[in-house]
Amino acid sequence: MSNAITYIMATTDKIVALFLTFSFLTISCNQNQDSKFEFKQWHKSANRSPLSSTIYPYLEWNQAMNIKLGLTEKNAEFDFQYYHHPVNAIIFTKSPKNENYEIALKLSKDKTEVIDISFLKLKSVTE
User: Fold this and answer.
1) Which has more confidence, 35 or 75?
2) DSSP one-letter string for 67-120
């Protein structure tokens, strides 16, 4: 009887440890995901006129999430629209949760490479 209780307690401890590890990893992954959508101080927004929202590229969510540091305009599937901004290019996207985002791409001095990314959640593209 004593061996059975010891076995059950050891098994229970392993299950609890596994559950805590899984919980920790889930929370850590969610924090990393949330921190990805960070607003940076250098982010200069586009004009909020309806015309402005048609000047800048709109990307599907999956495409926007594939933008990485080091991306060059040559390798991008869109133009770096930075003409009205001395610091960054702008794109718009909509999340699977139907949330609108303006994404600013900080470009290298020669305007050919993404060196930082900033996210701004919007009520609408013409907010």
Assistant:
1) 75
2) --TT-BTTTSSS----TT-SSEEEEEEE-TTS-EEEEEEEE-TTS-BEEEEEEE
Environment class of 62 (CB within 10 Å of its CB; exposed 0-12, middle 13-18, buried 19+): exposed
Give the chain's length.
Answer: 127
Domain boundaries, the chain: 1-36, 50-122
What does the pLDDT read at residue 32? Answer: 41
- Phi, psi dihedral angles at 51 (to 5 degrees): -65, -40
- Chain segment 44-86, per-residue pLDDT in tens: 887 766 666 567 889 999 999 999 999 998 999 888 887 666 6
Output the CA–CA distances (angstroms, integers) from residue 110 to 20, 34, 87, 100, in the order listed.
48, 30, 11, 29
Q: Do residues 84 and 75 lie in contact, with contact meaning Cβ atoms separated by under 8 Å?
A: no
Nearest to 55 by CA among 83, 76, 94, 74: 83
Tell me phi and psi for residue 48, to 5 degrees: -90, 20
Q: Give the pair of three-digit tokens for residue 105.
A: 């791409």
